[in-house]
Amino acid sequence: MVRMSAEERRESVIRAAITEFAQRGFYGTSTEAIATRVGVSQPYLFRLFAGKKAIFAAASLRCVEDTCRVFREAAEGLEGEEALHAMANAYVRLITEQPEKLQMQMQTYIAVAAAEAEGDHEFGEAVRAAWMKLWETVHLPLGADDGETTTFLAYGMLINTLAAMGFPPEHRVWQGMYPSARVTGRLEK
Question: Quick one: pLDDT at residue 189?
Answer without folding.
Answer: 38
